[in-house]
Amino acid sequence: QVQLQESGGGSVQAGGSLRLSCEAFGYTVGTYCMGWFRQAPGKERENVAVIGPDSSADYTPFAQGRFTISQDKARNTLYLQANNLKPEDTAMYYCAASFSFYCPIHLQFLEWGQGTQVTVSS
Predict the structure, then answer these.
(1) pLDDT digits (tens, 9 = 90+) for 14-25
(2) CB atoms within 10 A of CB 4
(3) Fewer CB within 10 Å, N or C, the chain?
(4) E strands of the chain, at which residues?
């Protein structure tokens, strides 16, 4: 049974940074495609970034240059470094896992964590 446990969210001022973590249980990070998503109140869930087994990454345009996805196989953990945060980045952030070696930005993920809240004030 796959379990994904996010942490690292919080409240920051605009321009601040956060590092989100996603520890996996029953799943080996770095074997298949994984990703980060977010959902703001009243809005649909949207992709942030994905990372493949070879650590190649792809980003949604709003995340380019400000967000960095990475994975640590020794810690079995996925990360999202979010810099220069803006109020519009306020959302619940979720990590997701797949059993796909192929890693397009719009891959349909089947395994999800419970999320970690990010709140950015102006």
Answers:
(1) 999 999 999 999
(2) 22
(3) N
(4) 3-7, 10-13, 18-25, 34-39, 46-51, 57-59, 67-72, 77-82, 91-97, 111-112, 116-121
